[in-house]
Amino acid sequence: MFAVYAAEPNPDAPLDALVVGERPEPDVPEGFVAVHVEAASLNLHDLWTLRGVGIKAEQFPMILGCDGAGRLDDGSEVVIYPVVGDASIAGDETLDPRRSLLTERLQGTFADVVVVPTRNVLPRPAGLSAAQSAVMGTAWLTAYRMLFVKSGLRPGQTMLVQGASGGVSTALIQLGRAAGMQVWVTGRTDDKRSLAEKLGAHATFASGERLPARVDAVFETVGDATWSHSMRALKPGGAIVVSGATTGPNPGADLQRLFFLQLRVIGSTMGTRNELADLLTFVANAGITPEIGLELPLERAEEGFRAMEAGETGGKIVFTH
Ligand SMILES: NC(=O)c1ccc[n+]([C@@H]2O[C@H](COP(=O)([O-])OP(=O)(O)OC[C@H]3O[C@@H](n4cnc5c(N)ncnc54)[C@H](OP(=O)(O)O)[C@@H]3O)[C@@H](O)[C@H]2O)c1
């Protein structure tokens, strides 16, 4: 079958490991279903996989793509939940120490067919296209958990999103606006800040710019480049919710500020299957149109990878069949 995959890990030139070609048709073991993929979305996680981060060398070749939407053999329309874990662990599969994401052990969604455990498909809500549904499983689910499960923010409070145009950032902006938060965003260029305003940001700022007031919570996926600004942006008692560290994982902790202002740093990763179901309902009920910046046929996936690697994002990047 047609597939886009990582041939081998390549830490220095990840796109040299990208292959647009053919992989064998997959078997469907007991307890699994085959999803005929209609749309799949790109995440920075796919670039990490090409670099060999978060995946064992013996797992290559690996079909890329954590997220997707498609049809089962009986024609029913489904959205894929990418976390493969045991939900009996504390009621939360993201706490299962043996959990994995699609593309870490199981093959991913950038293919004609992906085979996943039966519990990893959810019905696609009416009103969401295959492309819109295909962005929900990773970036949007991560944003949903950061905002609604971890941050403790109430409608009307002020949130700062570091980064304007990325997958998680655009999801945070759209979800925060729909939920009645005061949404502030930093972005690296005028175009990126304009996008944030179009998506509902109440105010935008250049990266690192001094803010007019302190905020209740900051949403971090950038890491080293924005961390100290995030720490300075918070009201006493405020929270940084962090789910990524694109520019480096070990920012200066600013410990004095952390204890003196009683700040909270809260880690967040993906979300549960139930949270994905709730996210799909919220997006459909609130009439949110998830921002897709670039939609390409799967055959042209490399263009999407190059745009993401260059930081040329404007919402999610989606590949269609
Ligand atoms: N823990 C989890 O479950 C989870 C889930 C999803 C993603 N993540 C992580 O979250 C991060 C973002 O993922 P994504 O898919 O949203 O990536 P993406 O679409 O490529 O977005 C990258 C974002 O980072 C910002 N950025 C990059 N370099 C920057 C710099 N030097 N200064 C300021 N901002 C910078 C960009 O801001 P501009 O708009 O200003 O360019 C953009 O908003 C990745 O590290 C990813 O691995 C983690």
Written account of the structure:
The protein is an alpha/beta fold and 321 residues long. The chain is 26% helix and 27% strand. Strands 3, 5, 6, 9, 10, 17 and 18 form a seven-stranded mixed β-sheet that branches. A six-stranded parallel β-sheet has the order 13-12-11-14-15-16, with helices on both faces.
Give a short overview:
With 321 residues, this protein is of the alpha/beta class. The chain contains 9 helices and 18 strands. The strands form 4 sheets. Strands 3, 5, 6, 9, 10, 17 and 18 form a 7-stranded mixed β-sheet that branches. It has a 6-stranded parallel β-sheet with strand order 13-12-11-14-15-16, with helices on both faces. A 3-stranded antiparallel β-sheet has the order 2-1-4, with no helix packed on it.
Question: What's the structural blueprint in terms of helices and strands?
Answer:
Layout lengths: L1 E5 L11 E5 L9 E11 L1 H8 L10 E2 L5 E3 L5 E4 L2 E2 L15 E2 L11 E5 L3 E3 L6 H4 L2 H15 L7 E5 L4 H12 L3 E6 L2 H9 L4 E4 L8 E6 L6 H7 E9 L12 H6 L3 E4 L5 H14 L5 E6 L3 H9 L6 E5 L1
Parallel strand pairs: 11-12, 11-14, 12-13, 14-15, 15-16, 17-18
Antiparallel strand pairs: 1-2, 1-4, 3-5, 3-9, 3-18, 5-6, 6-10, 7-8
Helix pairs in contact: 3-4, 3-8
Bound molecules: NADP nicotinamide-adenine-dinucleotide phosphate (NAP).
NADP nicotinamide-adenine-dinucleotide phosphate (NAP) binds next to helix 1, helix 3 and helix 4.
